[in-house]
């Protein structure tokens, strides 16, 4: 089966690529689909009302789209603290004014081990009571710092990274992680802060609900002049048409986001940018669980080595690398209670795991350029004899790219530590690959993997 090549439109905008990819961040943070994109629409409208110049609006635009790039980095910690589903716990935090003691107590009771035994709940509650504010700070700090670092690595400006780092600071100094106050919080961070809260409440109850929360938090969370300017945002009926149950599935949401980028500052999505974006999202994916640390990067390394050994040309190798870096993006939909589980998974938990390639497909299919790789990237758990998942494809349905990804994924999965076992030594990994060659994995790709395995192991040991 031939693999489709990623076709570049005449002007490929970075903004539409990131808008589409931001759905993966929404999934991780437990927000409704399209949260980041709609936060971007709100924040950019507010910037327009405030009369920000194009350069600042460009910095703001990318801060709004990538504000949750650090969201996966605290998922394992949130699960450790609360148990249950880290995505539900994260979203629930945004629905409360967590600075109020009564709201904190209600939140903790709602989110701590909701399905757990009473004794486990009591233990976790006691732990949280002892270290409440330190834990909160840590959870926010990891998310903001990591997000800022990722924005920086993607090539965005220091102002964009600074806006992400300080987006959860509050006007009166009661925010996190640094407790900055007033003008010490960068203006762009203040706008991101108000936009994300307005989106969450706007998604639930429309412009009136968003405006009510913004007004309630005037002078505490939000700067008074931004709250005043928000009144005009509230009246923008075209903007609020993007809210509501079916709006997130509208394919033109990403184009609408592209439309609010300052038009004289459009950044093109050339190959170098796409390399940086795929690598940055690989970090987001791998940060979700301590057990997937560097997995996507290593699968990409293995896939590139196998592809090169099979004689793929430069363009095909580049696309293979993007597909490998993004193959597990659907894992952002899996709660850490399942990803990090040391014991045997239940049938229901397995079902959730089996769906992660489906989410890889759903996320990537709408992304320009990467959309052409969606099918192969989401086929990395398929097997030649139809035993794989989630489509139960057989050899006829698997392109060479999909077959290479499957071998590269198995190679790293066997070599790496897992919650339930240590990483396997080279001889054992080689033996399993040979056993699976034919019925499970493509023999040509396994042969190429064995040819390059010494170099791959040497790199692993160097790292
Ligand atoms: Fe996977
Ligand atoms: Fe994987």
Overview of the molecule:
This protein folds into two domains: 31-265, Hypothetical protein af1432, CATH 1.10.3210.10; 271-462, Hypothetical protein af1432 (Orthogonal Bundle). It is an all-alpha fold and 463 residues long. It is 61% helix and 0% strand. The protein is globular. It has helices at 14-29, 35-50, 54-65, 75-82, 86-94, 101-111, 118-153, 158-165, 187-216, 224-234, 237-240, 253-259, 271-286, 295-309, 314-326, 336-339, 347-354, 356-364, 374-377, 400-415, 426-436, 443-462. The chain is built from 22 helices and no strands. The longest helix has 36 residues, at 118-153. Helix 2 (35-50) packs across helix 10. One fe (ii) ion binds at residues 328, 356, 380-381. One fe (ii) ion binds next to helix 14.
- Mass-distribution shape: globular
- Sheet of most strands: none
Q: Catalogue the ligands.
A: fe (ii) ion
CATH architectural type of the largest domain: Orthogonal Bundle
Look at the structure and give the CATH class of the largest domain. Answer: Mainly Alpha
Binned, the helix content reads: 55-70%
Secondary structure tally: strands: 0
Kindly report the CATH topology of the largest domain. Hypothetical protein af1432
Q: Helix/strand/pairing class, anyone? A: mainly alpha
Overall radius of gyration: 23 Å
Mean pLDDT: 89
Termini distance?
36 Å
CATH superfamily of the largest domain: Hypothetical protein af1432
Which segments are poorly predicted (pLDDT under 50) over 5 or more consecutive residues? none
Helical stretch count?
A: 22
Number of domains: 2
SSE order, as H and E?
Answer: HHHHHHHHHHHHHHHHHHHHHH
Sheet-strand content, in percent, reads under 5%
């Amino acid at each position: 089966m031939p693999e489709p090549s990623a076709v570049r439109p005449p002007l490929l905008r970075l903004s539409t690529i990131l808008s589409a990819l931001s759905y993966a961040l929404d999934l991780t943070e437990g927000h409704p689909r399209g949260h980041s994109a709609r936060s971007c629409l709100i924040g950019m409208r507010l910037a327009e009302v405030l009369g920000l110049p194009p350069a600042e609006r460009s910095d703001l635009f990318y801060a709004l789209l990538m504000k949750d790039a650090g969201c996966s980095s605290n998922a394992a910690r949130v699960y450790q603290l609360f148990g249950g589903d880290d995505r539900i716990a994260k979203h629930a935090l945004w629905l409360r004014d967590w600075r109020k003691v009564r709201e904190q107590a209600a939140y903790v009771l709602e989110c701590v081990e909701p399905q757990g035994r009473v004794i486990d709940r009591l233990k976790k509650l006691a732990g949280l009571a002892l270290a409440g504010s330190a834990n909160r700070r840590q959870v926010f700090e990891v998310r903001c710092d990591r997000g800022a670092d990722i924005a920086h690595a993607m090539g965005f400006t220091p102002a964009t990274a600074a806006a992400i780092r300080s987006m959860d600071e509050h006007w009166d100094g009661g925010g996190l992680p640094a407790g900055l106050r007033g003008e010490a919080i960068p203006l762009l961070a203040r706008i991101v802060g108000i936009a994300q809260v307005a989106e969450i409440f706007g998604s639930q109850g429309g412009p009136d609900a968003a405006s009510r929360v913004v007004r309630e938090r005037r002078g505490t969370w939000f700067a008074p002049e931004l709250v005043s300017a928000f009144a005009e945002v509230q009246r923008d009926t075209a903007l609020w048409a993007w809210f509501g149950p079916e709006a997130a599935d509208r394919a033109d949401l990403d184009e609408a986001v592209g439309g609010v980028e300052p038009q004289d500052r459009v950044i093109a999505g050339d190959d170098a940018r796409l390399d940086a974006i795929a690598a940055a999202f690989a970090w987001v994916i791998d940060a979700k669980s301590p057990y997937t640390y560097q997995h996507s990067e290593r699968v990409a390394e293995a896939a590139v080595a196998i592809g090169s050994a099979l004689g793929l040309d430069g363009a095909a190798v580049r696309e293979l690398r993007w597909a490998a870096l993004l193959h597990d993006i659907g894992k952002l939909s899996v709660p850490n209670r399942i990803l990090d589980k040391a014991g045997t998974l239940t049938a229901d938990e397995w079902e959730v795991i089996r769906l992660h390639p489906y989410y890889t497909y759903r996320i990537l299919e709408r992304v320009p350029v990467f959309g052409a790789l969606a099918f192969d990237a989401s086929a990395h758990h398929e097997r030649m004899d139809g035993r794989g998942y989630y489509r139960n494809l057989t050899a006829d349905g698997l392109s060479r790219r999909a077959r290479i990804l499957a071998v590269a994924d198995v190679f790293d999965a066997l070599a790496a530590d897992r919650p339930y076992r240590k990483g396997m030594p080279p001889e054992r990994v080689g033996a399993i690959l040979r056993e699976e060659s034919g019925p499970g994995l493509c023999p040509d790709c396994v042969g190429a993997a064995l040819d390059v395995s010494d170099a791959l192991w040497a790199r692993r040991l160097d790292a």
